[in-house]
Each structure stands twice: as C-alpha cells, then as structure tokens.
Amino acid sequence: MSRTSVRYRIGWSFVVFTCVVTAALPCGAQTASPAAPGKLDVPNTAAELNDAWPVEGRIEAQQLRPRRGQIVRPKGPGRATIAVTTGDWTIDADDVRFQSLEFVWEPPSGSVTAADNVPPALIHIRGRRVSFENCTFQGDGQRTVAVRWTPTIAALDSAPQLTLQQCLVRQVTAGIETVARGTMTIDCVDTLHVGPGPLVELRTLPTKGNTLAVALDHTTLRGARGLIATRQDYGDDRLGRLAVHAVDSVFAPTDRAALLQVTTEAEPPEWLSAISWTGQGGLVADTHPLMAWIDKAGHTHVVAENVIRASGLVRSRLRFEGEDLASLAASRLRDWAAPLRSLDPPGISSRHQASTPLIVPASGVE
After folding, report:
1. DSSP-based three-state secondary structure for 237
2. CB of 185 closer than 8 Å to CB of 160
C-alpha cells in the first residue's frame, strides 16, 4: 500500500489540555422507548441537590432545571430521552454534568421554533463549566444547533470550558455555536460529529484579548461541512486567537469542504495570524483543504497551504468500516495511508462496542 502524506509546521505556543476518557459510547447502550412515559424525580434534599437529578424514560426538556454541581442522568440502567420542543431551553448553572442522555428535537407540528433568524438549539448553556458524557444530539438537519454556549465571564474565575466526552452529534447545522468572550475552551473527547453543519460555529473570530481553544482527542468528523466556521468583520489589529489542538483525530468533511472556513471580505494574511493548529496523530482526507475563506458573494477561495502554519496533521486516504453515518461502528477508521505514532487507529475509540444505529424519533427526522 502506498503512503502519501503532507505535514505542516507551526511556530505557535499552545495551551496544554488534559483529557480523560471514562464512559462508554452512546450507541452501545439501550435506548428508551419513544412511547414510554416520562418520569422526573425532583431532588428535595441537600445531598440530592449536590449530586444527581435522576430522570426516567422520556421527558420534556423544560422540566429540567438543574442547579450548580448536579449530575443529570438516568435513574437506572440504560438511557433517558430529553425531548426538546422549543428552542429556548436554557441552563444557567455552573458545573452541571449530563450523562447517558439523548437530546432529540421534537417541536410541535407547525410551531414557530426560532425568532430573528436565530436557529433553535437543543440546549442553551450559560454556565461556565458544563460537560456532556455518553450523550447523543439529534436535530432536524435543517436549522437546529446542538449546543448554544454563551457563558458569563468573571475576571477572577477560571476560564469557561464546555466538554463533549464520548458523544454523538448528528443532523444539526452546528454542533456547538458560540462567541469568544475572554479565554474559553471547547474540549471534545472520543466524540463523533456527522453534521451536516460544522462541529463549531464561531460567530466571529475572537477579538483582541480573547481566545477560543478547541481541543480534540480521538474525535471523528465525518459528513460535515467542515470543523470550524467563523466570520471576520474587522481589521487585523483587533484580532484575538482561534487555537485548535488535535490529537489522534480524523477529519473527513463532505463536498470537499475545508476544515476551517472564514467568511470575510479581507483576504489572508490579514486574519491568518489569528488561527493556529497544533497536535499530533491527526488525519485529514486527502481531497480536502485545510483552510478556505468565503467572500460576501458566497464564493469559496482555498488558502494556499504554503502560507498555513500547522503541525500534527497528515493527509491520507481514509477508509471507514461502513457508510452508515447513523452508526458509530461504521465511523471507526479501518484503513489509512499515512505513518502514525501508534498502530491503533485515530478517531473514535475502537475499544467500545458501538454497533447499534441511533434510534430515529417518531417525528420522522432522518
């Protein structure tokens, strides 16, 4: 088998991220029946308020209002389904953890789901530190965002962090929609994103003094229109930093889409210095550019790779276990044509038995 690779170099410093993988991937577990009645056990003691908020079966999202430090998880073995019927479900608390839940977009027939051209979100997070573990996000494939994240900024507190750990995100226009406020981190571990929108939609490039760090560990991007999409509407002297750090991750966007896309009137290198890519063991499909910019008329321009400074990313022919994007097992990497530091495939972990496709809700969402 022939091996071809293109490596990129970069001279940037970067933040060190520590990632821990613990739970099982979501599709290997049981899925709650759509017809099962939902039950919500509201904690009423101090110990329960600081520990878990157990849910059972299938419930509407508006019933959940976790407090700081709580863990929202199924009451027993298996999984619980959170039916999101409006686009304004908001969680304000910090340090909330969501475990083994399926977030499904199910608006009433004919309902208005968003105002002012803002796409509805399965969940709107205002907390500074929130994690999703072993969760799935199922949108409508047309307008739905999985997670809208607008954390409050406190000068003396630690930087906000949003974590997706062993999650599946599909049929969304964006996995995470946010705007850089101060220094923020998005951390994705052993997670599969199959679009069709990008994993991260950043409303604008960070302004001066702000940094958005995106850390990816054993994460797979497949069938999505890029990894990160953002805009630039101001001069070079006002730019902050967008920093990507990818370890043992796989990127196979759709339709020859670039991993990083910037909508702007200004050609590089005016905004190029704001973006960095570091890491190791990353693979990108050999037909996809690393970066492109989109002008106001909607025309796409690929950024020449000799002006892009990046490290830890190798071009390769990629072959997955299957074509079914609804199955985690099908999105494991089977074959590649590039030298890596380990014989274990990058991308979502092969240690997990994830052979069951995501259950499609009764509303008919594909």
Report:
1. helix
2. yes
Round the CA-based radius of gyration of the chain to a whole number and report it.
20
Q: Which two tokens stand for residue 47?
A: 């110990």
Residue found by looking up tokens 């962090």 in the block: 161
Structure pTM?
A: 0.82
Token pair 């990629």 in the structure block, residue: 318
Contact between residue 134 and residue 167 where contact means Cβ atoms under 8 Å apart:
yes
238: left (phi over 0), alpha (psi -120 to 50) or beta: alpha
Structure tokens at 328: 């985690």
Tokens 């990108």: give the residue.
284
Contact between 87 and 61 under an 8 Å Cβ cutoff? The reply is: no
CA nearest to 349, candidates 20, 6, 10, 3:
20
Query: Between vectors from CA 166 to CA 165 and to CA 168, what angle results, nearest 5°?
Result: 110
Q: Kind and range of the H or E element at 49? A: helix 46-49
Question: If you write DSSP's letter for every residue of 308-332 in order, what string do you get?
Answer: --B-SEEEE-EEES-S-TT-TGGGS
For the chain, give every domain's residue range.
Answer: 26-336
- The Cβ of residue 349 has, within 10 Å, a number of other Cβ atoms equal to 21
- C-alpha 192/C-alpha 175 separation (Å) is 10
For 78-132, how does the pLDDT look when each residue is reduced to its tens digit (9 = 90+)?
A: 999 999 998 889 999 999 999 999 999 998 775 555 555 788 999 999 999 999 9
